[in-house]
Amino acid sequence: MDVVLRWVIIGIVALAAWPRHSAAQDYPTHSVTILVPFAPGGGTDLIARAVGHKLEQRLGETFVIRITASPKARVS
């Protein structure tokens, strides 16, 4: 009985983990904004722009770099 219960539980877990949607949706479907919470012209800004440029080339979508350097922007 213990072995049967174990196999039933394994079967339930396997069915729950089975992928329901095999086709992935396209991502991104619109422009992406990268928030940089530091001053423009700094190292973080330059890295964000370089990463955004490479992602544009790879994914074919527009990546917008937005500088949010203010005391209120610490949330980003």
Salient structural properties:
alpha+beta; elongated; 2 helices; 13% strand; two-stranded parallel sheet; 76 residues
Note down, in words, how this protein is organized.
The structure is a single chain. The chain is of the alpha+beta class and 76 residues long. The chain has a domain at 24-76. The chain contains 2 helices and 2 strands; from the N terminus they run H-E-H-E. Helix 2 links the parallel strand 1 and strand 2 (63-67). The protein is elongated, with a radius of gyration of 23 Å. The relative contact order is 0.16.
Number of helices: 2
SS content category: alpha+beta
Q: What does the largest sheet look like?
A: 2 strands, parallel
The largest beta-sheet arranges its strands as 1-2
**H/E topology pattern:** HEHE
Rg, please?
23 Å
State mean pLDDT (0 to 100 scale). Answer: 79
Cα separation of the termini = 55 Å
Strand content: 5-15%
**Strand runs, count:** 2
Percentage of residues assigned to helices: 40-55%
Q: Unreliable runs, pLDDT <50, ≥5 residues? A: none
Shape descriptor reads elongated
Seen as an oligomer or otherwise, the chain set is single chain
Topology:
Blueprint: H1 2-17, E1 32-36, H2 43-59, E2 63-67
Parallel strand pairs: 1-2
Concise summary:
The chain is of the alpha+beta class. It has helices at 2-17, 43-59, and strands at 32-36, 63-67. It has a domain at 24-76.
